[in-house]
Backbone:
């Protein structure tokens, strides 16, 4: 067994299991903490794919900033615990699982019958080169400078919008 | 045994499936938001997998943009949830029906 196989299965199983635990807990704070663990496992998967910059950004932005925001809001609002996942209205549950499973079946069908690995094989040197911050930064500040500025403007608009919405009661 | 790209794609599809199930079954608006973050992350995993296997960094650039949009969406969405909680004292999406007819 190679190290990359072992790492993929360890991180992949952690990511899949924490995702399932996250949607089945009735306490919202426990769900949020398992989502943090899921993001950390995803960062490990990004490292196995040689994407160093994205792995670090995943930890800082998702597991750090976004989940702290979620936990703050959870503690401000202290929402009452929901009914347990299994005690939900069975009709809604069955309908939701059918819809979700149809989505999964479509994706799995496409992946199994298109077989992208027939055409794509990993070139390790190019893969390492693509994940460095130099390669991403070069693209970001030359060919993709307009989307980059637009993303900055979007963050400004979101900051102002969040302030205005959370500041006062609507009258 | 080598890890081909299908392993990552199936894992990503499974996480998307869990996210869809979470959005449709949970009634707490904050957990619905967290399930949406899970779906965004499964799309990110697909982008990074293709980017790494093709040796092209544009996919990782788009993951960066997705993270920006997710941060903006979380900030505005949570502000909306706080504003609704002030008016109705609940975050249960079955009771937030002011836009339903």
Residues:
């Amino acid at each position: 067994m190679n190290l990359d196989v072992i790492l993929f299965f360890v991180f992949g199983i952690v990511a899949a299991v924490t995702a399932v635990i996250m949607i089945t807990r009735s306490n919202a704070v426990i769900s949020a903490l398992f989502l943090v663990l899921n993001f950390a496992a995803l960062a490990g998967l990004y490292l196995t794919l040689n994407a160093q910059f994205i792995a670090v950004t995943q930890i800082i932005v998702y597991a750090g900033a976004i989940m702290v925001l979620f936990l703050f809001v959870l503690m401000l609002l202290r929402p009452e615990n929901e009914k347990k996942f299994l005690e939900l209205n069975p009709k809604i549950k069955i309908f939701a699982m059918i819809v979700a499973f149809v989505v999964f079946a479509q994706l799995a069908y496409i992946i199994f019958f298109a077989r992208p690995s027939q055409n794509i094989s990993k070139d390790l040197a190019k893969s390492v080169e693509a994940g460095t911050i130099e390669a991403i930064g070069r693209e970001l500040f030359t060919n993709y400078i307009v989307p980059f500025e637009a993303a900055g403007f979007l963050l400004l608009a979101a900051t102002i919008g969040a302030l205005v919405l959370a500041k006062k009661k609507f009258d | 045994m080598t890890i081909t790209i299908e392993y990552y794609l199936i894992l990503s599809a499974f996480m998307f499936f869990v996210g869809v199930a979470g959005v449709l079954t949970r009634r707490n608006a904050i957990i619905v938001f967290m399930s949406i973050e899970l779906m965004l992350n499964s799309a990110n995993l697909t982008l990074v997998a293709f980017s790494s296997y093709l040796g092209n960094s544009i996919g990782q650039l788009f993951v960066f943009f997705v993270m920006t949009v997710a941060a903006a969406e979380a900030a505005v969405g949570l502000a909306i949830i706080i504003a609704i909680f002030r008016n109705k004292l609940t975050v249960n999406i079955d009771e937030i029906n002011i836009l339903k007819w």
